[in-house]
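Running log. JK asked me to keep both predictions on one page so they can be read side by side. First protein, sequence followed by its tokens:
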Amino acid sequence: MRESAFLVLCLLLTSTTSQITVASDGCQARTFGQSSTVCECNATHCDSVGLVRLPAVGNFLTFLSSQAGSRLQKEQAQVQRNSSGTALRITLVPMQKYQHVKGFGGAMTDAAAMNILSLSDGTQDQLLRQYFSPEGIEYNVIRVPMASCDFSTRLYTYADSPNDYSLLNFSLREEDVHMKIPLLQRAQALSSRPLALFASAWSAPGWLKTNGALIGKGSLKGKPGGKEHKTWAQYYIRFLDEYKKHNLSFWGLTTGNEPTAGKMTNYSFQALGFTPETQRDWIALDLGPALHSSPYAKTRLMILDDQRLLLPYWAKVVLGDIHAARYVHGIGVHWYWDHLAPAKITLTTTHNLYPEYFLFGTEACSGWNKLDPGVRLGSWERAEAYAHDIIEDLNNYVSGWTDWNLALNLEGGPNWVKNFVDSPIIVNQRSDVFYKQPAFYSMAHFSKFLWEGSQRVGVSVSQHTDLESTAFIRPDGSAVLIVLNRSDAEVTFELWDQPVGFLPAAAPPHSILTLLWARS
């Protein structure tokens, strides 16, 4: 079924351009039979939100994206001195202060790099600008897989020579040196601020594992403190060393992608199993001391890197041990089973138990569910799902949110096990264009406006509403409110910021709305 759908999509892509319209905001909109549109970009044309300047006190900006076709549509309006009497009032409560933002971004997988590099130089530059430049949506976080994952075209690690416990033959591969590293360098050159890179490993070399293979159910041989565990810890240090030679430093590391996958299931792609107990002991005896005695002692170490339904238990096991906890800075969570794990009893409970450790979203994508797989060009439902999860996470102490592949092809790959999924940007190599999905704009409503260092503050709502919202004070003192309307009706409201006044607004059906204003 997936193959036949892919053929139909290819036919659509090579058909007449009568499906293309150019909106007033510069989006060259294309329709592919989904609930909304994509914006098509090439080397010479792409819509862009541009530089956003804070309006003068007494004015505010709104940015609207909607199922109907708005894409970060910008409007300016005046703050009102008196209430309009609108039934729904959202009140900013700045004295209620919560977590600070680290940032938002995506992953530079092998697949993402291959897709970006499949385009002409000019179109590559356009795509990178859309993500990282001040005129684009200003991603400041990039996840970097350590060696291969399912979004690679082959299986490999950096130390495939058996019994190389001293890692004498450790070396980066062509996917790093010729693909990911040059693109990371270009992204950093485009960004106006340092990018926060963090790395995750999928599997140790097979000769270090109980099953002798990169895939399937397997964990490290031996016990924490033993030579296999120490070698795996040094593998992390060597990775950081090699990337440093290319002037790339890492803000963070995770203890390994989805540790339950290699422990509880016979996973079809790369995995390394840990229980919370073995992860605790490996950190305490091996990885923590290795990092502490290296030049990377300040690199942020995140545990879990798996589903939030494992919280708070996983955190209790690892962080309840003082020997492991002293090396840990945060907790990474994936979004895939969030509907089974209420945020308050997982995220907020964990924060309340361990408030000194940050929570961070390390992976998410649409199209992973076999009931709705692969690429859906123009799906607004997937944009709403992103915005809903980000708002819920932010309102429950998460400090950042990382999408999965930065770019995929029309099929949702390449992926060596055909585990095709969706991405905010889809590349059409044949036409030398890329499509900015509704999910791209969903991410933009957060990444563009919630600067690193922004602090979440309270909001109070006057009555029950379908709107979902979150509010922040940015480092310069300005304020941001982000509103999601997943209902079929427009919702009119006013925002009251006591020292400023009343900000009248309306959220159209199935829309995301960001408000930005100066407070003094």
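And the second, directly underneath as requested:
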Amino acid sequence: MVKEDYYRVKEWMSEYPQVLTKDLEIGETLRLLSEGHCSELPVVDHERLIGVVTIGDCLATIKSGIGWNEPINSIISAVFQSVNEDFSVKQLDGCPTYIVCEKTGMLQGVITQIELLKINQALFQRLEKSKETIEWYTLCFDTAYEGLTIVDEAGVIQLFNENYSRYVGVTKEEAIGLPVENVIENTRIPIVLRTGIPERNQIHWLQGQKMVVHRMPIWKNGRIIGAVGMLIYEGVSEVQQIITQIDLLEQRKGSETSIEVSKVAAQKRFTFEDILGESPAISNTKKLARKAAQSKAPVLITGESGVGKEQFARAIHDTGKMSSGRFISVNCAAIPENLIESELFGYMEGAFTGAKKGGKPGKFELAHMGTIFLDEIGDMPLATQVKILRVIQEKEVERIGGTEPIQVQFRIITATNKNLEKMVREGEFREDLYYRLHVIPLNIPPLRERKSDIPLIISAQLPTLCQMYDSEGKTIDKEVMQLFFRYHWPGNVRELINVLERLFALTSESHITMSDLPNEFFRIEKKQEYMTISSSLSERNEVRQLVHEEEEKNIIEKVLREVSGNKSEAAKRLGITRATLYNKLSRYQL
């Protein structure tokens, strides 16, 4: 892919152009124009471009009777083409074009006929290279999978490979432009377009044969713009052959290995692949968590309620160095304060009224050679925090009513939706315990920051819900999916799953539409939409309302960062003209 910098004029301009000064004589100017074989030259004042002088203006002035020794000050023209250094060469309109610094007005370079010719030659070479790349893509498209097709949002075929042509008996040329259901029998691509839910590894009857296919919606800016249909295996028999090969391979490993494999299969372990999501936000988090799993260091998982903190804790344990031990989960907020120490550290027989005969081991003992997960650690009482710190440091616990310490080895993972740093500053959480726990910090992004994962999460939940409610299957309308993309999801993944379960439980029809959504869902969505619009209007009027220059400068800098330096977009958001923005940028030296 070509970098965007390649098309900016700063990459092509002549950086040291011939320039004139306003006190230069007309005769000398004509000589410079002649020697440079150019029709005009720029005039600068302290390196700032103030205008141009053309050979026509010089000759017309001499013809009018003004002498050769007169300065050019009176014939400087303010009509010329200038752009900033980030201007695209593809939008150049004639030459010479001068490149001027937006902040200072200083001349940085020029694009002449020579540079323009080089640009055109380079663009032509790029075009030829792009044609070659397209040919490679075409070859890959025809080679990849047993069949591959891409449709637009209306279900009309835009791309169709040779393999699919062979199966359906329709040439690529005939297929392109037709509705997909007219070309591929029994296709569910129109349903995927309507619902936005991907369908992976599905059985598809085609030409009297069972095929294995993927059907994937293509999302862009929160709406479906098309779908991809992939024929993975040309028959179920191919899948059966693969399974047979795996079975044969297991048999060759011997009975002992087969027994171990059976044990692992029977005891399902939770992996990072079980955490649904392919967005950059969640992928980066899973990447860090995988690294954390390969150590025994404490992990502090932070994130809003419902993002799946315990899922990450389980995956770290099950794929980590302590996976042979138990995973003990404790919700610190759910245990009454007067019982939390007995739950964590255990107690001896007779330690208190009602104590269990023989005593009871605490959670730390149960987690010996395994992992203890303390969820909602921010709700841990201060008095208990002191004892937790000692257990972590000394690796020993003492039951309530006991006299002898018990040695324990464990890995500790904690989680909270609170700001522990703020709690430390306010004396609500022990600083020494915080730094003991905050060895490997892991922040789980909220669902609103990874909305592209919503279809994947829904797709994974549908079979579970169908089994739970004994349903043959339900589809979700595209408008519902679009609303899901706009919704803020304050309850995160947990809220999404709860909404899906409610829809399954309360909807009698097989297709879920907007009318099936609960009223409070719309009220919350409308409230969020109103808050977003109000916030946008506030930001747009902020520059006009603020008087203090320092505040105005900070706002402009903030908006420029948000739009990645795009001056036109920044001016639009600030509610001012581009010229006004340039003046403010110059004034504040931004």
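Observation for JK regarding the second prediction: DSSP finds 22 helices and 21 strands in the chain.
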